[in-house]
From TrEMBL, chain A:
It comes from Mesorhizobium ciceri biovar biserrulae (strain HAMBI 2942 / LMG 23838 / WSM1271). It comes from the Bacteria. Keywords: Oxidoreductase, Thiamine pyrophosphate. This is Transketolase central region. InterPro entries: THDP-binding, Transketo_C/PFOR_II, Transketolase-like_Pyr-bd, Transketolase_C. Gene3D superfamilies: 3.40.50.920, 3.40.50.970. Residues 8-183 form the Transketolase-like pyrimidine-binding domain.
Automatic annotation (TrEMBL), chain B:
GO terms for molecular function: pyruvate dehydrogenase (acetyl-transferring) activity. CDD domains: TPP_E1_PDC_ADC_BCADC. The keyword rRNA processing does not apply. The lineage of its organism: Bacteria, Pseudomonadati, Pseudomonadota, Alphaproteobacteria, Hyphomicrobiales. Its cofactor is thiamine diphosphate. This is Pyruvate dehydrogenase (Acetyl-transferring). Keywords: Oxidoreductase, Pyruvate, Thiamine pyrophosphate. It catalyses: N(6)-[(R)-lipoyl]-L-lysyl-[protein] + pyruvate + H(+) = N(6)-[(R)-S(8)-acetyldihydrolipoyl]-L-lysyl-[protein] + CO2. GO terms for biological process: pyruvate decarboxylation to acetyl-CoA. Residues 33-330 form the Dehydrogenase E1 component domain.
C-alpha cells in the first residue's frame, strides 16, 4: 500500500522529517538558536520541543562557532545531531568547525572516525533582510571535499533528502531557500529517502537544458511553461546535490538538447554555473553543443536592501525566459 | 515657572548625577531625544504595518535611556558601533530621523542610500560606524576603531553597543581581551534586555551578570539600571574619563527591557504578558526620567507638552521626506561594491 500523500509546505516537510528521524533513532537530536519555544526563526522546528523536550531540541546560546563544533564533537562520538543555523550567512562564523574539522576529520584520522552531522542553512534573498541575511553560500561549502552539500527544491525532496542526510555517515550541509519554506507540494507520510548525489529531470524537453538549483528550479519550470507556448521545448534538470554532483544526468541531458543554460541565485562568478559548464566542456557532451553555454547567476554585488534593487540582483523568470530564448535562437 | 525657580534655589548637591552635571536645557534636550527615539520606533512600526517599509526591524522601545545615557558624555567625533537594535543608538549619536526613515524606505536620501535598511543604519558623519546584522559583529570593529584612535592620537573614544546575546559569541571575548591588553579607549556596553531573541540570559549565559565577564579581562565591570538615564550617564561618564586618560576599557552592563517582540515576526511565547506589562507600566525609561525632571523642577507639564508636539512634527516631516525621496535606479545596483576611483 502506498503511503498517504498530503500537501505540506517545505517547512512542514522538514519538520516531519526531523520528527521521524528522532522517532526512529534516539541518537538524533536538534540544536540551534531559538529552535525551542520560539520554533525557529522560520518556524521549521515549530512545536517539536513540546513533543521531544528541551533535551532533544536544544536552544544554544548565540554561539555559532561553538555550537557547530559541539555538534561535530557529538557526531564524532556517536550522536546524530541536526544543527540549524538561523541564517546561512552565519556559517561564516562557524567555518572553522565545518571546513577544518567536520570535513577533514575522517580523512585526517585515516578512516578511523566518521562525522555524521547534518547542518541546515536557511539561505537566499527576497525577504528584504539585506546584505548579511540574504546570501547564497552553498558553493563555498561545495568546494570542500569531505562535505556533502544539497539544495532540495521541493517539499518532497526536502523531507526525503533530510532523512537521507541523517542516515548518511558523513557531514551533510542542507541549503534551504527561505522563500521555499511556504511552498506547498505533495509529501508522503512516513519514512522515505531521496538519494544524495542524484539530480532530477523535472521536465523533459528537446531544445535546451536548464540546470537549476533550489528556488531557481521552480522559476525555470515557470519559464519553461511560457517558452512552450512559443514552441521552445525546455528540459529542466534540478541538480539537488552540488557535492557530489550528478554529472551523468547533466551530460545525458545536454547530449540530447545540445544547449545548456545554468541558473542559480548565488553570485555568478566562481560558482556552481562555472562548475557545471566546465564539467560539460570536459565531457563527451561538449561535441554535442550547438551554442556556447550560458550562465545566469546573481549580480556581482552584496544583496541590497531596497526591494527593486534586491529583485534585479538575482535571476527572475523573465530573465530566464530571455536567456533561454536567445540561446535557442542563436542570439548572442 | 515657579518650579523652575525652586530648582535654582534648591541645592543640587544631593540630586542624582545628571542633575548636577548638566543644565536644564541639556536635560530637556535629552527628554526630547528620548521621545524622538520612541516616536521614531512607533512611526517605523506603523509604516511597516502599512507596507511602506519591507524586511524586518528590531525596535528599541523601552531601551531609550540606555542609548541616551551612554552617548551623553560622548563628543561628536567619538565613535560607536551599534547593533541590529540600533535605531536608538543612531538617534542618540546625532542622526536626523528623516534620513533614517528614508533609509528604511529604501531611498537614495537614506543614510546608506537605500542599500542597508534598518539593520545597517549608520551615520558615519556623526561617528556611528553602523548597526550590524551579525550579533557581536561590531565588537571587534570598535576595538579596531579604538586602536586607530590610539595609533593616530585622535583622542577619540569608541563605544561598542551589543546585547546580552552577543556576550556568548567568541568575538566578544577575543575583542575584550585585546582591548584590555592594549589599554584601548573603548567602552563595551552590553544592553541586557533579558533575552537574546527567545533565549533568556539564565538559559544562555553561565554568569548571573554579564558585567562579571569583565574580571576575566581585567577591566572594570559596572552594572547600571539601564532604564534610569542618570545612572547610565554617570557610568558612561566615568568610563569615558578612564578611556580618555589612557587607562583602558570598561564593560558596562545596562539592564533594560524591550517592550516589543524581538523582530516583526515574534510571537512572544518565551515571556509572559505580565512581565511585559510590568516593565511597561512600572519601569518605562521615559516616564521615569520625566518624573525626575518634574520632581527636581527642571520641567513642567507645558514644557513636556511642547517637547511631545515638536517630536510629533519632526516624525511626521521625516516620514514625508522619506516618501517624497527618490528610489535608487536599478542601473546603480553595482555601485559601492568597490571604492570608486578617479
Ligand atoms: C551571528 C548571528 N547569530 C544569530 C543572529 C540572529 N539574531 C539576530 S538578533 C538575535 C538576538 C540577539 O540578542 P541580543 O544580543 O541580546 O540583542 P537584542 O536583540 O536583545 O537587542 C539573534 C539570535 C545574528 N543576526 N547573527
Ligand atoms: Mg538581548
Amino acid at each position: 500500500m502506498d503511503a498517504m500523500v498530503r500537501e505540506l509546505s517545505y517547512a512542514q516537510a522538514i519538520q516531519e522529517a526531523m520528527a521521524i528521524a528522532m522517532d526512529m533513532d534516539e541518537r538524533v537530536f536538534l540544536m540551534g538558536e531559538d529552535i525551542g519555544v520560539y520554533g525557529g526563526a522560520f518556524q521549521v522546528t515549530g512545536d517539536l520541543v513540546e513533543r521531544y523536550g528541551a533535551d532533544r531540541v536544544i536552544d544554544t546560546p548565540i554561539s555559532e562557532l561553538g555550537g557547530a563544533g559541539v555538534a561535530v564533537g557529538a557526531a564524532l562520538t556517536g550522536m546524530r545531531p541536526i544543527f540549524e543555523f538561523q541564517f546561512s550567512d552565519f556559517a561564516t562564523l562557524a567555518m572553522e568547525q565545518i571546513v577544518n574539522q567536520a570535513a577533514k576529520m575522517r580523512f585526517m584520522l585515516g578512516g578511523e572516525v566518521s562525522v555524521p552531522v547534518v547542518m541546515r542553512f536557511p539561505a537566499g534573498s527576497g525577504t528584504g533582510a539585506a546584505a548579511q541575511h540574504s546570501q547564497s553560500l552553498e558553493a563555498w561549502l561545495g568546494h570542500v571535499p569531505g562535505l556533502k552539500v544539497i539544495q532540495p527544491a521541493t517539499p518532497y525532496d526536502a523531507k526525503g533528502m533530510l532523512l537521507a542526510a541523517v542516515a548518511d555517515p558523513d557531514p551533510v550541509m542542507i541549503f534551504e531557500h527561505k522563500l521555499l519554506y511556504k511552498m506547498k507540494g505533495p509529501v508522503p507520510e512516513g519514512y522515505y529517502t531521496v538519494p544524495i548525489g542524484k539530480a532530477d529531470i523535472r521536465r523533459e524537453g528537446r531544445d535546451l537544458t536548464i540546470v537549476a538549483t533550489s528556488i531557481m528550479v521552480q522559476k525555470a519550470l515557470d519559464a519553461a511553461a511560457v517558452l512552450e507556448s512559443e514552441g521552445i521545448d525546455v528540459e529542466v534538470v534540478d541538480l539537488r546535490t552540488i557535492r557530489p554532483m550528478d554529472k551523468q544526468t547533466v551530460i545525458d541531458s545536454v547530449k540530447k538538447t545540445s544547449r545548456l543554460l545554468c541558473v542559480y541565485e548565488a553570485v555568478k562568478t566562481l560558482g556552481i554555473g562555472a562548475e557545471v559548464s566546465a564539467m560539460i566542456a570536459e565531457s563527451e557532451a561538449f561535441d554535442y553543443l550547438d551554442a556556447p553555454i550560458v550562465r545566469l547567476g546573481g549580480a556581482e554585488t552584496p544583496i541590497p536592501y531596497n526591494p527593486e534593487l534586491e529583485k534585479v540582483t538575482v535571476p527572475q523568470i523573465p530573465d530566464i525566459i530571455t536567456a533561454a530564448r536567445d540561446l535557442v535562437k542563436g542570439v548572442r | 515657572m515657579a518650579t523652575a525657580s525652586k530648582a535654582v534655589t534648591n541645592s543640587r548637591a544631593n540630586l542624582p548625577f545628571v542633575y548636577r552635571q548638566y543644565s536644564a536645557e541639556q536635560l530637556k534636550q535629552v527628554l526630547h531625544k528620548m521621545y524622538l527615539v520612541r516616536r521614531f520606533e512607533e512611526g517605523a512600526e506603523e509604516c511597516y504595518t502599512r507596507g511602506l517599509i519591507h524586511g524586518t526591524m528590531h525596535l528599541s522601545i523601552g531601551q531609550e535611556a540606555s542609548a541616551m545615557g551612554i552617548c551623553m558624555p560622548l563628543a561628536e567625533d567619538d565613535q560607536i558601533t551599534s547593533t541590529h537594535r540600533g535605531h536608538g543608538h543612531c538617534i542618540a549619536k546625532g542622526a536626523e530621523v528623516k534620513r533614517m526613515f528614508a533609509e528604511f524606505f529604501g531611498k537614495t536620501t537614506g543614510y546608506c542610500k537605500g542599500r542597508g535598511g534598518s539593520m545597517h543604519i549608520a551615520d558615519v558623519g556623526k561617528g556611528n560606524l553602523g548597526a550590524n546584522g551579525i550579533v557581536g559583529g561590531g565588537i571587534p570593529i570598535a576595538v579596531g576603531a579604538a586602536l586607530s584612535s590610539k595609533m593616530m592620537k585622535t583622542g577619540k573614544v569608541v563605544v561598542s553597543f551589543f546585547g546580552d546575546g552577543a556576550n556568548n559569541e567568541g568575538a566578544f571575548h577575543e575583542a575584550l581581551n585585546m582591548a584590555a591588553v592594549w589599554k584601548l579607549p573603548v567602552i563595551f556596553v552590553c544592553e541586557n534586555n533579558g533575552y537574546g531573541m527567545s533565549t533568556s540570559t539564565a538559559r544562555s549565559t553561565a554568569v548571573k551578570n554579564i558585567a562579571e565577564r569583565a574580571a576575566a579581562y581585567s577591566m572594570p565591570g559596572v552594572i547600571v539600571n539601564g532604564n534610569i538615564f542618570s545612572e547610565v550617564a554617570e557610568a558612561s561618564h566615568q568610563a569615558v574619563a578612564r578611556a580618555r586618560a589612557g587607562e583602558g576599557p570598561t564593560l558596562i552592563e545596562s539592564k533594560t527591557y524591550r517592550h516589543r517582540g524581538h523582530s516583526k515576526s515574534d510571537r512572544n511565547r518565551y515571556r509572559t504578558k505580565e512581565e511585559i506589562e510590568d516593565w511597561m507600566s512600572n519601569r518605562d525609561p521615559i516616564t521615569l526620567f520625566e518624573s525626575e525632571l518634574r520632581e527636581f523642577g527642571f520641567i513642567d507639564d507645558k514644557g513636556i507638552e511642547a517637547i511631545r508636539d515638536a517630536v510629533a512634527q519632526e516624525i511626521a516631516e521625516g516620514i514625508e521626506f522619506a516618501k517624497a525621496s527618490p528610489s535608487p535606479d536599478i542601473s546603480e545596483t553595482g555601485n559601492y561594491v568597490y571604492t570608486e576611483q578617479a
